[in-house]
Amino acid sequence: MFRFESPWMLLLLLPLAALVAWRFRERVRLRFSSTATAAAIPATWRSRLGRLPLLLRTLALAALIVALARPQHGTERVRDVSQGIAIAMVVDRSSSMGERIRYAGRNLTRLEAVKQVFKDFIDPNEGTMGGRPNDLIGMTAFAQYADSVCPLTLSHATLVQLLDSVQLVVDRREDGTAIGDAVALAAARLQRAEESLERVDEAAQDYEIKSKIIILLTDGENNAGDRSVRDAGELCKQWGIKVYAVGVGDDRSVNTRFGRLTAPLRPGFDDRALRAVAELTGGKYWLATDSDALQAVHAEINDLEKSEIETVRYSEYREAFVPWALAALVLLSIEALLRQTWLRTNP
User: Fold this and answer.
1) Cα separation, 234 vs 230, whole angstroms
2) Which pLDDT band, with edges at 50, 70 and 90, does 81 fall under?
3) Distance (Å, rounded) from C-alpha 181 to C-alpha 233?
């Protein structure tokens, strides 16, 4: 970009142009009885260049006026300042997640359905939720033990690739449901989110973590690990992390004298602990009985937790008047030299 800081100074070029036009049209008149002899004298280079000093002075003044207008070269820059959500997905991969569920006309395991909905949630090319391009997202999977699948990252393509590595537990010795340990591990990752982001991502200076949440998906009861679900919830509350808990499973409805009651179909499904940890941290609990409900839950979370992005445009300019000022100085020096030497006139 190019601009003049004081463009009104360029108006001085108008009177300069008028003055030069008048000077070039000005003629010196002398009375002679005959000019025939003078006309016969051949023109010399000195006579042809007689107006060169005037031209040089005109160009020098024009350059000086341009310098006074302060020409500047600039570069416009666009900076995106984002306020994103730090999201830790905590996914159950115990053997019970191998039970079947209908998803988009296919018969998938619960884990496969959860992974597909997760892709729809974070990838704008997969589903209708628009993706979460401005959010830090990581993933923790658990059975008997909790493992970090992917640290918090803005590179969601990498996260989608790592998601495929999450499989049902095959070793019975590793089977179990360590919900408390998994939530605590995800909370620890979120608690250090700013530190991790500054260390690995150059965009960290323009990124602000607006809130931190855990999305917990499980179909079981906490029966492994060192921490209870309540203990993990207390840790999340202390660090300001909300837990959105999703119980994945079928339900059954029975009619009683007190009305129609809904209860989990699979024995051992503990929705009270999930509901409690959600309420303790300011989150929410859902029971997703099929793939449609699972998608609806993620769509609701998508609406509850919104990211913000602000585009800041600014320009950086550097002064460019020095070459014009130097040009004016050089032209005036040459004009003065010519007037005192080769093109000197009398008077």
Assistant:
1) 6
2) low
3) 11
The DSSP string of 225-246 is SSS-HHHHHHHHHHTTEEEEEE
Q: Is the pLDDT of residue 180 over 90?
A: yes
Q: What tokens appear for 316 in the block? A: 């950086």
Identify whether the C-beta of residue 87 lies closer than 8 Å to the C-beta of residue 137: yes
More confident: 269 or 190: 190
Contact (Cβ atoms closer than 8 angstroms) between residue 72 and residue 5: yes
pLDDT surpasses 60 at 30: no
State both tokens at 94. Answer: 């115990």
Residue 266: is its pLDDT beyond 50? no
Q: Within 13 A of 147's CA, how many CA atoms are on the CB side?
A: 16
Rounded Cα gap, residues 12 and 58, in angstroms = 12
C-beta separation of 130 from 302 below 8 A? yes
